[in-house]
Amino acid sequence: MTEAYIVDAVRTPIGKKKGGLADVHPADLGAHVIKALVERTGIDPADVDDVVFGCVDAIGGQAGNIARTAWLAAGYPQHVPGVTVDRQCGSSQQALHFGAQAILSDTADLIVAGGVQNMTQIPISAAMIVGQQYGFDTPFGGSKGWTERYGSDEVSQFKGAEMIAEKWDLSREELEKWALQSHERAKAAIAEGRFENEIVPFGDATVDEGPRETSLEKMASLQTLVEGGRLTAAVASQISDGASAVLLASDEAVKKYDLKPRARIHHLSARGDDPIFMLTAPIPATQYALEKAGLTIDDIDLIEINEAFAPVVLAWIKEIGADPSKVNVNGGAIALGHPLGATGTKLMATLLNELERTGGRYGLLTICEGGGTANATIIERV
User: Fold this and answer.
1) Beta bridge partners of 13
2) Is residue 354 part of a domain?
């Protein structure tokens, strides 16, 4: 059976809103990580079969198939195609899945998979906002079928996160303790150089800009996002700019081009859950992935679950029974940022490097996504 391998994984430093990457065109951000992959692995870009990139809110500089424009902006051959994927926050993880599936089906040998997002230039939900300005319905408004099934109440990530905190009885203090830990772990990881092998500096941007000095006292002073709620900005992911990419290869490509794989794709899948809760799908996605892979959560050495909001991670830990010491060990999106379309392969780069640093075998990546879906990927270090 053909295997799909990760040969290398890179990312830009993650810029905060209006930070060091704010003025960079999204195509140039994508081109930067693509060029880094080519240079680090020594592949001939002419041998790449496809470029699959994740991106959310594909308007402005992110419109027009950013996978294709990023590849061409890198100066690489025109015969190599590209396709852009939108699975919301899991878009580049899905890009990785599509690329690996092409290799596993024996229809491709070399795939560049990744993602890009400049949230400073193009704010979250920009596509919906522009649509409303032109008088169009939102994805959840105006649909008779949707309204009959789910009603006409607000659908939002903030509402979903609050519902999760309430259902799993997560106190504001618990959420803030997790958020503080995220910052502390991220700062420690930066100080120890744990991200250096995955980050390719972009000009003066050399390190992640998100981690900050904070405390439980500072967090406790913030207003909640929803009146009477438990969540504040301190327990939510940061608005960010960045790009990331991985090179995927088949057995044949590994031999033909003398590549050195770093990990094997052990399992990939996606599942869905209640779209009103929206952010709970990593729970069934993880359960399904472990069952299909014939593993238990105790077999997993390291876990990356995107910190869209602290309750997403804490509810997942409760349901799955995971050891918190294995989860987001270098901090998460609360501290390091969440550049939507780039987050999946960004987290994969971090997971891969940390498995190598610690000598772990299996790593799990899962991300909650708008619409109530989630991807789950299990890799095995080689």
Assistant:
1) none
2) no
pLDDT in tens, 270-294: 999 999 999 999 999 999 999 999 9
Tokens of 354: 């940390």
Coil vs helix vs strand at 303 = strand
95 class by beta-carbon count within 10 Å (0-12 exposed, 13-18 middle, 19+ buried) = buried
Report the alpha-carbon distance of residue 250 to residue 288 in Å, rounded: 25
Residue 211: HSE in the Cβ half-sphere, 13 Å Cα cutoff: 18
- Find the CATH number of the domain harbouring 40: 3.40.47.10
Q: What is the pTM of this model?
A: 0.97
Cα 151 to Cα 141: distance, rounded to the nearest angstrom: 10
Q: What's the number of domains the chain is made of?
A: 1
Query: Which helix (H) or strand (E) is 34 found in, with range?
Result: helix 26-41
- Residues designated catalytic: 89, 338, 368
- Following CA atoms 258, 259, 261, 266 in sequence, which dihedral angle do they give, to the nearest 10 degrees? -80
Residue 188 lies in a domain: no
Question: At 378, is the secondary structure helix, strand, or coil?
Answer: strand
Cα end-to-end distance, the chain, whole Å:
17
Measuring CA to CA, which residue among 117, 139, 120, 143 is closest to residue 128?
A: 139
Is 330 contained in some domain?
A: no
Task: Give the residue among 10, 13, 11, 31 at the shortest CA–CA distance from 21.
Answer: 13
Which residues form the domain of 98?
4-125+239-257
CA distances, 194 to each of 34, 176, 199, 326 (Å): 21, 24, 10, 16
Residue 356 located in a structural domain? no
Which amino acid makes up residue 188? A
pLDDT one-digit tens code per residue, 53-100: 999 999 999 999 999 999 999 999 999 999 999 999 999 999 999 999
Antiparallel, parallel or unpaired: β 4-11 and 240-250: antiparallel
Burial tier of 170 (Cβ tally within 10 Å: 0-12, 13-18, 19+):
buried
N residues, the chain: 382
User: How far apart, in whole angstroms, are the C-alpha atoms of residue 279 and residue 306?
Assistant: 10
